[in-house]
Each structure stands twice: as structure tokens, then as C-alpha cells.
């Protein structure tokens, strides 16, 4: 199964495409979509559509939206997330949402793991030489791992 993990953001959208077969991971591609302010939503949509076409995932795993501290930031992330979901829908890719707690539990085995622990476990699980940068990329790969370890991935 090919899974595209997404860490939604407004200025940076992390992504990681993984193949998961018989309990083993294969890294397909990972990176980040970076944007300029004036064209952010158009850039996110266009880059996401191209990424979906290039990687052809069977599932897209994305973090649920949650409100932390900055109300304006959550609005911008929601806008970017909306165009990501639109691109997935238009490409016919089913979307699965996970909370940060679910991702931490699936990757690090502990729902209160800190970001560095999750990133290091992501590196180890995928047998990478170093933690992918920027952090959004590592978070997106963790999202894909979470989906692979989820019972919802068994739908395919």
C-alpha cells in the first residue's frame, strides 16, 4: 500500500510518501512544499496535485486540525488544509485523519512522547541516516507510519 503523509501548514507543508507491505516500509519520496505569501493557497493546491499525480498514493494521512494558541495561525492552516483535501478528493485519494496523540502512540509507543522522540523513531523505523528536515517533513512521514499501523489501513 502506498501512503502519503501530510503535515499541513500555511508557509510549509511537509509530505512523505511510503510504501508499506508485509510490515515493511519503503521510502518513496519526502520533502516540503514552501510557498510565497501572495500565492500560498494556489501553490499548495498545485504542488499537492502534482505530488498526488507523481506518487499515486492509495491513502492520504493528515493531521486533524486543532487550536493551540494563535487563532490567526489556525485559520491559515485550515485554509491550506482545505486545498490539500480538495486536491486529494479530485485525485480520488481517500483521506484519513489522525490526532497528534495517535501519531505519537503509533510511532513512539507513547502518547505523550516529545517531538524529538517521534522524529528519532521515524528515522529509525524508516532506516534513514538522519532525521528529515524541515521538521514538517519528519512529521509527515510519522503521519504515514501512523496510518500504516492503524487498523484503518486494513481497508485496502
Task: Explain what you see.
A hairpin with a 2-residue loop joins strand 2 and strand 3. Helix 1 runs parallel beside helix 2. The mean pLDDT is 92. The chain is α/β, with parallel strands linked by helices. The chain is 46% helix and 23% strand. The longest helix is centred in the middle third of the chain and has 21 residues, at 71-91. The protein is built from five helices and five strands, in the order βββαβαβααα. The chain is globular. The N and C termini lie close together (7 Å).
Compact summary:
The chain contains five helices and five strands; from the N terminus they run βββαβαβααα. By secondary structure, the chain is of the alpha/beta class.
The residue ranges in which pLDDT falls below 50 over 5 or more consecutive positions are none
Binned, the helix content reads 40-55%
Intertermini distance: 7 Å
Percentage beta strand: 15-25%
Amino acid at each position: 500500500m502506498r501512503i502519503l503523509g501530510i503535515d499541513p501548514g500555511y508557509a510549509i507543508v511537509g509530505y512523505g510518501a511510503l510504501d508499506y507491505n508485509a510490515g515493511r516500509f519503503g521510502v518513496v519520496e519526502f520533502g516540503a512544499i514552501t510557498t510565497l505569501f501572495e500565492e500560498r493557497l494556489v501553490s499548495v493546491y498545485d504542488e499537492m496535485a502534482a505530488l498526488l499525480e507523481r506518487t499515486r498514493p492509495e491513502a492520504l494521512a493528515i493531521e486533524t486540525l486543532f487550536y493551540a494558541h494563535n487563532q490567526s495561525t489556525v485559520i491559515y492552516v485550515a485554509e491550506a488544509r482545505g486545498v490539500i483535501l480538495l486536491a486529494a478528493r479530485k485525485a480520488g485519494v481517500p483521506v484519513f485523519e489522525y490526532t497528534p496523540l495517535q501519531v505519537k502512540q503509533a510511532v513512539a509507543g507513547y502518547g505523550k512522547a516529545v517531538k524529538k522522540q517521534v522524529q528519532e523513531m521515524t528515522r529509525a523505523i524508516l532506516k534513514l541516516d538522519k532525521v528529515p528536515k524541515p521538521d514538517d517533513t519528519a512529521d509527515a512521514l510519522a503521519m504515514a507510519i501512523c496510518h500504516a499501523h492503524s487498523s484503518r489501513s486494513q481497508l485496502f
